[in-house]
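discrete fold record:
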Amino acid sequence: MQYKLTTPVTKEMLAPLKAGDTVLLSGTVYTARDAAHKRMMELLDAGQSLPFPVEGSAVYYVGPTPERPGQVIGSAGPTTSGRMDAYSPRLLDLGQAIMIGKGARNQAVKEAVVRNGAVYLAALGGAGALMAASVEELEVICWEDLGCEAVRRLEVKDMPLTVILDGSGNDLYQSGPATYLGWIADHKKKPPNIDL
């Protein structure tokens, strides 16, 4: 199914989402990669506030390229999410609701998603221009010294995403290949020569 969501979101808004569903996300999305996540952990360890309201937030793992004249943002394809695995459970426990990136997540992240009724959404890797097209506004809100990894506030409209991890513990990276191979077996066809 396809859902339209606007941030900030609640657990109740995310509860119907299942791995494999698509989402058109609108509202505020914050950008942060591993360098910014490390700094966020340092703030928390020092008893300080995060640079954005974490409750119900969406964080996109992206380091956009510089925008060209007349553009809001440059290419904005996702970063490999596993680089944030060490930090994500803590942020989810503090109320972050949506993670956006690409690639599989570790078991601790999966457990934190279920524990908090959160979701992990995949952006299209290799389609930075498509992802950038949904960005209507951009503001660097902290750590400008990190360059492309500075934390930004994006205002997005209908950003196209796919649910990978849902609040029930389903993981599209596990169920997708199994479903595909089941279909092949049911239809007595040989799968193409690809690695799954």
